[in-house]
Specification:
The protein is mainly alpha-helical and 89 residues long. It is 64% helix and 11% strand. Strands 1-2 form a two-stranded antiparallel sheet.
Length: 89
């Protein structure tokens, strides 16, 4: 511990040392969870949309479920943009 900050170290991809504070480590973990949630919600939205498209007579509840999944997906995308999360990093 250094000045009440926990410092975590790890060896980077190129062999160099990476120093992460506890706050940065927590942010990184939350960002990874956010990306996983985005992928999961996109899959859920696409699945529900596919079911509704192939239904002869889609129910009102099914249509609402698609709208809800779409809204959740776009909310998560906005949150990722706000947090400056990049899926490639």
């Amino acid at each position: 511990m250094y000045n009440n900050v926990v410092v975590l170290t790890a060896i980077g991809e190129k062999g160099g040392w990476i120093v992460l504070t506890k706050k940065k480590a927590k942010k990184k973990a939350m960002d990874q969870q956010l990306l996983a949630d985005i992928k999961r919600m996109k899959h859920e939205w696409e699945t529900l949309e596919n079911i509704i498209e192939h239904s002869i007579e889609p129910s009102e509840e099914g249509i609402l479920d698609v709208s809800l999944a779409k809204a959740k997906y776009f909310y998560l995308l906005r949150e990722a943009r706000h947090r400056k999360v990049n899926a490639l990093s």
